[in-house]
Amino acid sequence: MRSLFHLVICFxxxxxxxxxxxxxxxSINPDxxxxxxxxxxxxxxxxxxxxxxxxxxxxxxxxxxNYQEIIKTVFEGRKFPAKxxxxxxxxxxxxxxxxxxxxFRYKKLEVIAAPKDYGWYVITVITKxx
Length: 130
Known about the structure:
Blueprint: H1 2-18, E1 21-22, E2 33-34, E3 38-39, E4 42-43, E5 46-47, E6 49-52, H2 54-63, H3 67-76, E7 78-81, E8 87-99, E9 102-116, E10 119-129
Parallel strand pairs: 6-10
Antiparallel strand pairs: 1-6, 2-3, 4-5, 7-8, 8-9, 9-10
């Protein structure tokens, strides 16, 4: 039963990632899926979506970030104004691992996003290791 649950979760995440939609909640409930693999979540009594654009997906992969960290940065990170009415979110994570053959204790994510009616559209992701 547990492996079936994990299979369902993996399938839901695959659908969400293919549709550029990532969840704003750490607990995934299959009942929250609506048409087209878009997920509806309640954050502070408000449905919020975080959509990760193709450019941001590519940069996240190149720069060593994953979508859970991106979501966490958007909802828990510090918020700064950016150019063109965008917002920059920053969050530092404990890393304690190797990146490009060098050891780093921390990884800082900077997420540039544009506010939309449904939530946030992530434009790009920048990582800094130290």
